[in-house]
Amino acid sequence: MGNSLKTVFYRNLWGENPVIRQILGICSALAVTNRTVNSLVMGVGLMFVTAFSSLTLSALREHIPDRIRMIVQTLVIAAYVIIVDIFIKANLPEISKALGPYVGLIITNCIIMGRAEAFARKNPPVISFFDGLFAGIGYTVILLGIALIREILGFGTIFGFSINFIDFTKWTIMVVPPGAFFMIAIFIWIASGIQNRRLKKKEAK
Amino acid sequence: MTPQINPFIIFFASIITSNMVLSNFLGMCSFISVSNEFKTASGLGKAVTLVMVFTTVINYVVYQYVVLPLGLEYLRYVVFIIVIAASVQIIELAMDRFLPELYIKLGIFLPLITVNCAILGISLFMVIRNYNFWQSLLFGLGSGLGWWLAISTLAAIREKTGKSKIPQGLVGPGLTFIIIGLMALAFMGFSGIFVIQ
Amino acid sequence: MKKGYLYTIVFIAVVSIVFSGVLAAVNAAYKSRIERNVLNAEKASVLYSMGIEADDAVAVFNERVTQKDIEGIYLYSAVNDEGVMVYSIPFEGSGLWGTIRGYISVDQGLSTIKGIAFTEQNETPGLGGRIEEEWYKEQFRGIGIDKPLVYGEDSGIDAITGATSTSNAILQIMNNFIDTTLKELEEADGK
Fold first, then answer.
1. Dihedral angle sign, alpha carbons of residues B154, B160, B162, B164
2. Cβ–Cβ of B24/A31 closer than 8 Å?
3. Closest CA to A38 of C175, C132, B164, C54
4. Which residues does chain C have within 8 Å of residue A68's beta carbon, measured at their own beta carbons?
5. Mean pLDDT over residues B21-31, rounded?
6. Chain B residue closest to A112 (CA)?
7. Angle between helices B7-15 and B133-161 (to 10 degrees)
8. Which of B70, B156, B165, C173 has the most CB atoms lying inside 10 A of its own CB?
9. What is the ipTM of this complex?
10. ∠ at Cα B49 (B46, B54), nearest 5°?
11. pTM summary value
């Protein structure tokens, strides 16, 4: 597969979607998904970090000595995460409190390291930047999907706005951690179901 | 005067009711990918426990006596991750030299651990919650044991389910997440057993 | 690629210096703002516990709230939106994971809880961390303090599902507050 903008986009959002197809970056993905706003902030933060760390590492790729590659990658990623952390603390203090240590944990999010290793190491800066950005978007979309369902069923709100006009009993299970596990299982199930059906169609032809 | 929480409550809570993986979602990556065989999973669990205790202690000392006095709190992520990477290397070297048998068993897991979110997570939680030395130590140990317990249990269940007939779309990660969800529910059932003094 | 040791060392040094520089600059630029946020959040918490709605917490706080020192107990007092004089008193206690701090407001006769707000808590996000949610905090408004607080249908206070320890810790903190801080205040007030 080539590395045009289109293939990179398709690959990161569906074909190799980091969360539902590669099962990466789950750590931080689930903890914050009982509120859509938190997930959105987390997703945008991750997008920023993957995009810019891919850009930086790709620009430096000819100069980084091999034996300290991992350390340099970690340093660059950590630096961007700290910027995101300071920014959220300064501008969105409430959300910063709700996210707690999970912003810092973006550093060990396997998606970023994965993109740096698998893509940015071998490709020029601009396309690496978009690769990182799209991986971040692929992650955010899934996060928001899970968060939306959890918030609607668990709290009866969307982005914090009440939807009380539809009256139903709130599903407590959606608020607590097991709900997140079940939701992600369903997402993966749907995704691989669609993928399997496509494969079958291809074989039939 | 801040009230101090009994370190032993932290210890037991972090093993069961507030298990790192099942309620804080930390260390998921390797939790999923290295849990299809009981023996390997248990090995990784041991290695994680070891590294967790080691790095929690070092990070505590570094944070209290280097980072805080210098006013570099905002750099703590970088400091912690470097400490973790370095400790893993040191443990690897020391094990190879002094405990070669153990190294053959656990050695392959050590590099994986550097990027395990749970390890960094423990250090960050320790700082945010202002733990003292004993609280941090028992928190690290408890969380490590909790992680080990969770991954061994998951691997044991997955070995059994490997032969069952399930919908095709659920094979692999899908089913694993459902199992984890059920485990998390079961662990939550213990949440009433602690009395906070 | 293969490079010499010297190159490696110089490279890592340059990378570290550049990034620490950038970070130090970002940190310096935002530091005062972050500190101000913390202070504003504190004021907003005091107002919330009192039952005063405010868009601009700082302005309203400065206008309506006065700080008092009654025999060594520092508290804030103000007339809330219902026109009742309330005291907002800081509290502190242990949760499941760490110290929980905040403000509890009571009416002047020290007989009813007017509200509670948290300024610091490190409970598990999504579980115990939910004590910060409105529905939980609102339950305590107007609760009489003639007897110890308990969860259940009789009292109309619900605990948080899956976070029994944190929920119990909150009640423990509040009962403890009623037994000690309020008693001291009553005695001090009577003098």
1. negative
2. yes
3. C132
4. 8, 11-12
5. 81
6. B115
7. 20
8. C173
9. 0.83
10. 130
11. 0.83
